[in-house]
Amino acid sequence: MKKFKNNIAIKSPQKGLLITVLLLAQLSFAQTKPEEFKGVIGKTLAESKEYWPEPVTPPKGSPNVVWIILDDVGYGASSAFGGQIETPVLESLANNGLRYTNFHTTAICAPTRSALLTGSNSHKVHVGGFSHTIMSAGFPGWDGRLPSKNGTVAEILRDKGYNTFGVGKYGITPDEEATDAGPFDHWPTGKGFEHFYGFLGSATDQYKPDLIEDQAHITPDGRHLSEQITDKAISYIQKQQKAAPGKPFFLYYSPAAVHAPHQVAQKWSDPYKGKFDDGWDAYREKTLANQKKLGVIPADAVLPERNSLIADWKKLTPDQKKVYSKFMEVYAGYLTYTDYEIGRLITYLKESNQLENTVVFVLIGDNGASKEGTLQGAVDRQTYVNGDTEEKVFQNNLNRIGEIGTAQTYTNYPLGWAQATNTPFKYWKQDANSEGGTHNPLIVYYPKAIKTPGIRTQYSHVIDILPTTLDILGVKAPESIREVKQDTIQGYSFYNSLNDAKAVSLHKIQHYYIFGSRAIYNDGWKAAAAHHPNSIEVKEALNNKVNLPPSDFDKDVWELYNINEDFNERKDLAKKYPEKVAELKKLFDQQAKKNNLYPLIDWQDVYLRKIHKTPSTEGKSAQELLTKANK
Question: For the Sulfatase N-terminal domain, which residue ranges apply (predicted)?
Fold first, then answer.
């Protein structure tokens, strides 16, 4: 009797000769490459000796792995990191695991996810912007197609004997390949996921999602997407464990939440009625105090000044306060509901006696809080592209206040709440120059390995999750996957910090770049440059019908921060240490060349690409082109 993949046992009627084509396919699927035949081939069966390569199986007792990544959640949103939004499940995981308080993403969704799944920098794996046609470009760092030589965690673990499942947002399939005709190489199933249920784009409606399962689009059933993906994740694990009890699995749980559209049942938002009536300024102060009590920020931390774009809450009209508060009630309800759905998954693992042997990583956000709701917030997707005045947008929101958060709207909260939920940092999503764009909470939960729950302050980055996971599992990164030689994984394992709060971070250098904004970190020092025009300035230019200045990267002003002493970037040291700025700018250039970052592409380039397939814009003003782009 011989065991094969999925614990199927077959005995041949003639000397163990296996003739079933199906099992031959299963056997080959379990191998990363064809194995040399080690038997004997004679003229007859009697003169021959069979050989069956051993199927790949992980060591007995290998832990399951669950990666949870939320979308558009700032550092100061979840109660697990001091925020005012109740997330009891995340709190429980954090209280019984580790809070990593110096963890970083790329500042926007697709680059973060490509870096997470491959363990290498986003431009290095060709996702410097997005995989969408408009937001990708025909250069190695920008074409939006994960190369085969940069295998994903799902490919690695699949070939180590794990089952691999993904649910929710994928976000790194090129638009032109995202049809039922494929090709499917860049779909999740082409990147190591044996099953996937979710959507391929960056955002989708929560009740009418652009839904796929495996390699086909399917019709959604009308329930909230978060409920559907949780059901599917549990179903995948249940079926697998019934067929092969104890076989380890990898689950990538990636809800659309809480990316716009903010849509959630009233029973989740109603408990927050009145909770935010004292405004975004008060929220920041309360959250800062909570964060100090939890120890997730330094005890002497000071809030940066309120951004000049955001109004003083006390000076707002009653109608403005009413509308803005409603937006935040919906967002908060949405995040609490997301926590509940995560709880259903965790509860299932606990009740099925699998949680103790499961490594759980929770990335609370793939970037900082989103500024994409504009100054007023939005109830309609056209708010983003119409070029309406602020007053017109506000009046529309006021008139439709009862619809905010419903299935009929495309809700996103205003900028003031983005700053509040990003406490204690400046700036937001897309701002790769700022900790506000890149600094997110991370929770690691694994009872078998983490002896004492606590806080970890080591610098880490999203590319470090994959090598850390492999270290925990005792799995070596493969030299090849399905006969494709692999690049070296760029991330650094922080496995040594699981039980050593004083372990030294191995990750010393990290560059950041999103649509012109950029930064370089080197062992506590950080040089950063904001870039103009950014997405808000593009929107403002459209609103006010003014031309944008030509994009000029050489005019960007570099700032300098000592992150070890000034974690939320309040003291610019560039004038004091110009030689340090020059040194770090040189390092950025080296990293950019090494990681396929060039050419630099910014927001204005992205908008202009909506009209021109070539860079030529001669004879037309930026305003003309941008206005045409948004029609």
Answer: 63-475
